[in-house]
Amino acid sequence: RARALVAAGLADILAADNHGDDRCIATALEWLNENEGEEQAIVLLESNPRAILEDRALFEVEPLPLRTSWWSRVRNLLEER
């Protein structure tokens, strides 16, 4: 779900509350970089968190067009029926 929100441009920041958990922000950063989301990573992980702390307006996060395999597209079409 989080990836879909980021891909749609509906997330303003990325944060984690992982006390006693092995998940981390580095996983999200890695996913963004693998999907050509370097600009989104800067806004989500640096610019917007800084803007919140400085009580400024947030920057818009551009949608991240994800590449999907042909098999994923076929599966999505079949699931819609």
General description of the model:
The chain has four helices and no strands. It has one domain (2-80). The protein is 53% helix and 0% strand. It is globular, with a radius of gyration of 15 Å. It is mainly alpha-helical.
Write a compact overview of the structure shown.
By secondary structure, the protein is mostly helical. 53% of the residues lie in helices and 0% in strands. The protein has helices spanning 2-7, 25-34, 38-53, 70-80.
Question: What is the helix fraction of residues, given as a range?
Answer: 40-55%
Query: Could you tell me the mean pLDDT?
Result: 88
Low-confidence stretches: none
Count of DSSP strands: 0
Strand-residue fraction?
Answer: under 5%
Cα(first) to Cα(last) distance is: 22 Å
Task: State the domain count.
Answer: 1
Radius of gyration from the alpha-carbon trace, in angstroms: 15 Å
| Sheet of most strands | none
Content-based structural category = mainly alpha
Number of helical elements: 4
Q: Which overall shape is indicated by the principal axes computed on the Cα atoms? A: globular
